[in-house]
């Protein structure tokens, strides 16, 4: 999915998992979001505020990275197999 905007409810953790190229943006700005336990709760607005950054600047850089990411068409890490979960080999289904 080539985003035209960042979902304001999406966490920075999901953004980095879904579009790995965005990790470079975080590193370039010396943001500690990579591996941060709060990353699953922080939105881009929260992260920008926590790191005293202009939100618009961060959004623009993240969007540019997201659009250039070769894995841009990957599904959400949180939605993968959400509707049809298949048990792994040796596991039983809950259904």
Features:
single chain; 95 residues; mainly alpha; globular
- How is the main sheet built? none
Structural class: mainly alpha
Helix and strand element order: HHHH
Tally of DSSP β-strands: 0
Describe this structure in words.
The chain is mainly α and 95 residues long. The chain is 37% helix and 0% strand. The protein has 4 helices and no strands. It has helices at residues 12-18, 22-28, 44-50, 55-68. The longest helix is centred in the middle third of the chain and has 14 residues, at 55-68. It is globular and about 45 Å long. It starts with 11 loop residues before the first helix and ends in a 27-residue tail after the last helix.
Compact description:
The chain is mainly α. The chain contains 4 helices and no strands.
Topology of this structure?
Layout: H1 12-18, H2 22-28, H3 44-50, H4 55-68
């Amino acid at each position: 999915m080539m985003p035209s905007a960042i979902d304001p409810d999406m966490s920075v953790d999901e953004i980095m998992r879904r579009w790995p190229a965005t990790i470079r943006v975080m590193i370039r700005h010396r943001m500690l979001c990579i591996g941060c336990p709060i990353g699953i709760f922080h939105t881009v607005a929260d992260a920008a505020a926590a790191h005293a950054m202009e939100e618009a600047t961060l959004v623009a850089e993240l969007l540019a990275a997201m659009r250039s990411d070769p894995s841009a068409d990957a599904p959400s890490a949180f939605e993968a197999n959400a509707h049809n979960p298949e048990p792994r080999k040796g596991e039983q289904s809950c259904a």
